Amino acid sequence: MKFLQSLENVVTPANGIAATTGVFLTPIFQYLYGTGRLDILIVLFLMIGLDWITGISAAKKDRSYTSEYGLSRIPRSLFLLALPAVANMLDRVMGTLGFLFYGVTFGLLYGTVLRLMLIELVGLFRNRLLIW
Known about the structure:
Blueprint: H1 7-10, H2 13-33, H3 38-62, H4 67-94, H5 99-131
Helix pairs in contact: 3-4, 3-5, 4-5
């Protein structure tokens, strides 16, 4: 009987590539966003992903989806990911221990991503609400 955790199953090229990528990207990620802030960043990444999904759904519903529409959202998403990194660096310079980082991140979650998702969802279901 072969064990599930045998060395043949664990040491694979895919696992080696993933480990090497993690070794190089983790210090960069921690430098940009700080340590111990993974939970709030996962929420931010999920909200950006949901924003993309609702935007695509609303565009398909309105039949206004073009490649320019999708490509215009990429710089916006990169900007949303860059702001917490800049706030973290300003926290380090000013010694505020995460005040700016958390303020900017929660502001992005509330003011930008959630509001846009709600607007897109209301636009998506607008026709259905008028029928009722």
